[in-house]
Amino acid sequence: MADFTQGSFTLPGEAGYEDLTLRMAKKWGADVIRDSDGTKLSDEITSAGYGIYSTICIIRADNAWAKNNMDKLQQNFLMSIPVVAESDTVVIPLMQGYFKEQFVVNKKDDPKEFWQVFDRTTGEEVGLDQWSFDPETETVTVTDVTPWHKYTVNFLAVRIWEEISMYNHITNDWGNKEHLMATEPRYPETQENMIRWLKDWCEKNPDTTVVRFTSMFYNFAWFWGDDLKNRSLFSDWGSYAMTANPLALREFEKEKGYKMTSEDFVNGGEYTSTHNVPSKKYREWMDFINRFVVEFGKKLIDLVHSYGKKAYVFYDDSWIGVEPYGKRFKEFGFDGIIKCVFNGFEARLGGGVEGVEAHELRFHPYLFPTGLTGEPTFAPGGNPKLDASKYWVNVRRALLRKPVDRIGLGGYLHLVEPFPDFCDYIEEVANEFRLLKSFNASAEPYTVDGKVVVLTAWGSLRSWICSGHLHEHPEVDLTNILESLSGLPLDVAFMSFDDVLEHGIPADTKVIINAGWQGSAWSGGDYWKNADLIAKLTQFVAEGGGFIGVNEPTAAAANGTYFQLSHVLGVDRDLGSKKCIGKYQYRVEESSFVTEDTKNIGDSMKVVEGVYVLNKDVKVLAEKEGTPVITMNTFGKGCAMYLSSFRFSLESTRFLMRAICQVSQNTKAMDLYICDNLNTECAYYPAIDKLVVINNTGDEQKAVIETEKGKVEVTLKPFATHIQ
Amino acid sequence: MADFTQGSFTLPGEAGYEDLTLRMAKKWGADVIRDSDGTKLSDEITSAGYGIYSTICIIRADNAWAKNNMDKLQQNFLMSIPVVAESDTVVIPLMQGYFKEQFVVNKKDDPKEFWQVFDRTTGEEVGLDQWSFDPETETVTVTDVTPWHKYTVNFLAVRIWEEISMYNHITNDWGNKEHLMATEPRYPETQENMIRWLKDWCEKNPDTTVVRFTSMFYNFAWFWGDDLKNRSLFSDWGSYAMTANPLALREFEKEKGYKMTSEDFVNGGEYTSTHNVPSKKYREWMDFINRFVVEFGKKLIDLVHSYGKKAYVFYDDSWIGVEPYGKRFKEFGFDGIIKCVFNGFEARLGGGVEGVEAHELRFHPYLFPTGLTGEPTFAPGGNPKLDASKYWVNVRRALLRKPVDRIGLGGYLHLVEPFPDFCDYIEEVANEFRLLKSFNASAEPYTVDGKVVVLTAWGSLRSWICSGHLHEHPEVDLTNILESLSGLPLDVAFMSFDDVLEHGIPADTKVIINAGWQGSAWSGGDYWKNADLIAKLTQFVAEGGGFIGVNEPTAAAANGTYFQLSHVLGVDRDLGSKKCIGKYQYRVEESSFVTEDTKNIGDSMKVVEGVYVLNKDVKVLAEKEGTPVITMNTFGKGCAMYLSSFRFSLESTRFLMRAICQVSQNTKAMDLYICDNLNTECAYYPAIDKLVVINNTGDEQKAVIETEKGKVEVTLKPFATHIQ
């Protein structure tokens, strides 16, 4: 039998704690030791025979250079707070409300080239000759305005504190430690310095085997406010807001023949959130930035390779422009990708990237005193073992469906010392990971036939992710759905509305899921005013396809309906304009295939007020507060279900599996390699005839599984994995 | 002292129950006896020396004529159910889902002149040459359609059962009793017959002193379905849907030079609901119908007058086109108006009509075995005395503010016999009404200075009413607000957005209330995309005005905000597009002037999800489920409040009074002629120095009232009225 106690594990080492580092490396079977933001490795560690990952964040790596080149820092557009005019002149303070340690007004470039002033009452831009900027007071004065209208300025701000560094600094009370700045790599001088710096770094770090880029150049959007009661003014894991700067804007215009305006980024103060349907222009900007990031990024990776080192990329933080699911990602030449994970969908996100050899997951908890929301982890009151076991349960089921190559931790290793139970548990997890990896390495798990397609405005570019972690926006239905799907025996694909419009719906599609609030990239917003899209989906279901709509699926108020596939779903939503239109008085079905294992699943759902059934043929499987929350409708040869919301749980995961079987009219799929007990799940690897059964709870569980060779009965200890 | 035991009371008499009729007439102090739908008066009653009201419903009065003139019945447009095309041809059954006893397809007039076929997937009309109607199968076949789009037909239907008659017939199981039909008065032949019939009627009914029209010609919209689970397909108390017919449509086009299309009525299946913002075209149609109703109605009234009889109009049922708050109402020459009332706002609605001498309220319960929702009233299990006392409490407070001249009952008198406590109670109520009327007749009640203006799309045309009764749509915030306002010591006015745009805000306006869901006539819908409107309201508050916004006030998603007066209110609503935009973390105020008497009023409010405060200056007076439900903001010299909902109660009424005093910065108004105990209210008549204190509950209450002459302390029995 193979040795499952060693390898595929990255340990965060820490200078000054050499003994501990080497002891834990042995205990956890690490083959690689890494540094982290705020820690260093000593010679004793780097020369101990382990592979060495070194994290570098190239944009903030050379702060001395940054200080001398403050005109080459990264920038972005900000919108000033709206000011109501009380006469025909209005004075607008630009920086009011913004965190002065993060932003300064760009006073170098001509405001008239990039800034815009808007009458936000009419939505019209104010003429360039009507306003002037006073650099002294940092105000814009607008003349000939309409009294009692409100006005804002879109202006360029220079960022003087790199956000991840800023967050870590403030979270860990780093006091007087230098503020690191993010340099803008589009300037030739910056590129030259980055190459020089990286070369120098490679030469000075001969023990490093893997350079871990954290990540490339542009962080996800994170605008801070100066009021502690509203610190995070704009925060979006997938937004390109922080890629705008004069040079890029000019180059874009030169290349495309048209301009990105400040308003394309500011968008009336809503900025460019991943949750919103992207404009065509914004998608082109993303593509423009992605091309640059790949082109210049490749130079850095080539340089790393020239020193005989590997280059990995961290799929977080400054990942904007990297786009691991984009068409150019493989061109970087990265050897590996590292995803930090709290949940199963993130394991799939990391594991599903093509064009790299190694997929690594950085587990949680991060070795910091506190977690992301300030709760104690490696500090008095914390229970890191419990945290780790919950995260492992989240992730394990996803790893049964799609393997990764490595796992690891990050942070300050010395913090684990007072938590020996945590140290023991990580040893267990690492061994179990290696065992499971060995199955997956040689075999595909059994999967129900046919594709389950998640249909959004982003499609495959945002495979397995909406924007950020589940705990950041737990109310995003699609993130919850992805979490359930991440461990189910299904073939999941991601498709955009543009894909459907251009190429139609692939023949192997069995079920389409559309889940989100009206106007979101997940539901589709104005895409649902496109008659071709509606017709294609209508035909898909009429001809036998399955459709699951969640929250406000296919929603766009037009032509007397709100859900544009209301005829397919059998339900619509009335926001008030149909107050006087009669609503069918349904009765709730007593039982159904879909809710067989989770009779009360409807109680856990959030009501979407105003949802009503269209006619007597629609089956209501559950209602709440007098409103249907789960419905089913036969449409032509196909079947559609409506769910008012979706929140991840073991129950909802089972319910979703049944719903997918129901709408794809493949209910018998529930009779093979599915645990009877929804607290447990299993994966079967036909090629090696291995069945893995997992207990997703902290209690002992029994499970019966129908297999092709008959029933298998298993009893599982809390959180246990059973293999036969 | 005057006699308060006689007069101003209309009793429903009933042939066959002559003794009872005359006994109750004496007990209740009736001066007038009336008939009702389904009852007749005998000679013994009509000759007993009472005034005699006779109800006539002129459109259904001569059913024999109607049967012989089926081409002159009333009509309306219906939309067929949407049918999804599966090929390039689609066949649409017109009548599917409609109640066949109410509607038949108009097969007489050329469908191509009036009907329209729509592709409801694109919203485009299908060319006239692409469809044909088969009168045999009552289907429309549409050719050259786009497969998988859905199609509907707007068609003219003739109504063969007058709706009130239909409702009463079905509710009271009238079995084989003839179905009455509504004739269309626009045809000269119909007019001729109506005049002939009315003349004949007047001659045959010499004892009748008052002809009570029920009402004029067009009922409020009421489309029935054939499925008992969805009977009321469209029901709107203020809609002109049932005024459309070929003759009217042609006359309108001739007069205006442009056409009302079927779609102007059908509106994608939403029809023309009073709750929705009316289009300019629809308002013109209303005006066109109103002019006709007044012109021809006046001829009938003149005829009644020529017989020495008075003419009253019932402000319900077939009231469409009558418009008692319209500019032409006084031209009818009516002598009186009768409003049926459940609530205080309806008492104000009836009492506030100008241009008639007599205002009468028809009280509830109606003398029917069951109430409007089928619950027993004058039947086993019913408690009509309790019903009557609740209604009286609702209405009494409104009568203290604005008097009416008469009250009465309706229905089958014999049903009261088994309920002597009801009979005694009505005697009490009638006496109390006469006493209160005597005060009001000679004096105005004390009222807080300055106007409280309700701002809607309808303005004064829909003074004191949204659409229908409170119990029909108890979730309409504005109806609830009107109910509270109906008994408060305030000078209430109604203003439309067009009024504001054309004439500005009158100088005596202290507070403006805007209350409703986005898109509704009450909130304003696209009116809030008008920058002038926003500016005028902004200026009003900035210069010292008060503003109260409820639910989704000033809502129209535009220019980065949802509430267009968010800068005034200090709150806005995020429907998801600002998911990644930071929201200010407010704290809830511990106490406030506004919530002083109703600390927990926030608990009774409905959360409007996504409402957030804009900045630190906004005061949150209450939150629920983590969302602000009552907020206050100082804007310039003025003040604005946001309430997430409003439901009438004694508590919410007090809260509203305080909110109005707060935003108008007149908090000291609470210190004069306001009961300290919110279960009681009072009215003071300075001219006659009378103070009336009422107990709005079924429990004994104590009240202290600050008056100009000092404190008054009163103890009130359940439901009692105290006068000093």
Written description of the protein model:
2 copies of one chain form a homodimer. Chain A is an alpha/beta fold and 724 residues long. The first copy, chain A, is built from 18 helices and 35 strands. The first copy, chain A, has an 8-stranded parallel β-barrel. In chain A, strands 21-20-22-23-30-29-28 form a 7-stranded mixed sheet. In chain A, helix 6 (188-204) packs parallel to helix 9, helix 11 (344-351) packs across helix 12 and helix 14 packs across helix 18. The longest helix of chain A has 27 residues, at 280-306. Chain A starts with 8 loop residues before the first strand and ends with a strand. The model of chain A has no long low-confidence stretch (mean pLDDT 96). The interface between A and B is large, with 69 and 69 residues.
Write the layout of secondary structure elements.
The structure is a homodimer of 724-residue chains.
Chain A (H helix, E strand, L loop, with lengths): L8 E4 L5 H10 L4 E3 L8 H4 L4 E6 L6 H6 L6 E5 L3 E2 L5 E4 L9 E3 L5 H4 L1 E4 L4 E2 L5 E4 L4 E4 L7 E10 L3 H9 L16 H17 L5 E4 L7 E4 L7 E5 L9 H11 L5 H5 L13 H27 L3 E5 L14 H4 L3 E5 L3 H8 L6 E5 L21 H18 L4 E3 L11 H23 L8 E6 L20 H9 L5 E6 H7 L5 E8 L14 H12 L3 E6 L3 E4 L2 E3 L2 H4 L1 E3 L37 E3 L5 E6 L2 E9 L2 E6 L6 H14 L16 E6 L4 E6 L5 E7 L2 E7 L4 E3 L1
Parallel strand pairs in A: 1-2, 1-19, 2-3, 3-13, 13-16, 16-17, 17-18, 18-19, 20-21, 20-22, 22-23, 23-30
Antiparallel strand pairs in A: 4-12, 5-12, 6-11, 7-12, 8-9, 8-12, 10-11, 14-15, 24-25, 26-27, 28-29, 29-30, 31-32, 32-35, 33-34
